[in-house]
Amino acid sequence: IVATVLLGLVLTPALSQLQNVKVNRNFYPKTITINVGLGFQTLTLNSNNLVAIIEAQSAENPWTSVWNYETGYIATKLVQEGVCYISAMDRVLMPSFNSIALLAEETNNVKGETVLSNTIRYVVSRRPARELRAYGNDIFALCRGLPSFIAFEEGQQEGGNQIFYNQNACLRLDVLNLLGIDYCRAGKI
Q1: What is the pLDDT, as a whole number, of residue 7?
Q2: Which of 69, 154, 160, 163 is the most exposed place for a label (fewest CB within 10 A)?
């Protein structure tokens, strides 16, 4: 009986400390799956380095996009083409890091409708991206070993020259039913 009482006295403070531990239910990385058209996309958020990774799983056009909110760059790997496009993040049109998961979950509940609120058109230049590490570790890991090119937002200029492109030669990505991203290949300058 004495041993039980002593054991109880020793364990009581330890057990009360365990009860005061709060569980963080918003642990990161956080992963959400969203239905988009005939396929689905997976959103993975990592708050430690402010990176969102979106993977589109479809038979016709699989792709992966990394949005690095810390460095301000996005990169998209087109799996079938074996190429990577890197561009500056348009923080006005793109959802913020803190709201992207909530917005994606809301649009996932709207069945059969596309809720694209914004569209960004990038023109892919013929200029290769160099020093991939400068864009962040996640973008480096995504694009390493692939031909990687810089993409400029439509209306921006590359080296003082206007970039021309064929509007019929654009690839459209519907990102999480939130944002349309068009990648258009540059023509001759």
Answers
A1: 58
A2: 160
> For residues 78 and 65, what is the distance between their CA atoms, to the nearest angstrom?
9
- 55-89 burial: b if 16+ Cβ within 10 Å, else e: bbeeeeeebbbbbbbebebbbbbbeeeebbbbbbb
Cα–Cα–Cα angle for 49, 52, 58, rounded to 5 degrees: 150
DSSP category for residue 42: E
pLDDT tens digits, residue range 52-110? Answer: 999 998 777 899 999 999 999 999 999 989 999 999 999 888 999 988 888 888 776 55
What does the alpha-carbon distance between residue 100 and residue 3 come to, in Å, rounded to a whole number? 56
pLDDT tens-place string over residues 83-99: 999 999 998 889 999 88
| Segment (H or E) for 43 | strand 39-46
Task: Copy the structure tokens of residue 133.
Answer: 């590490």
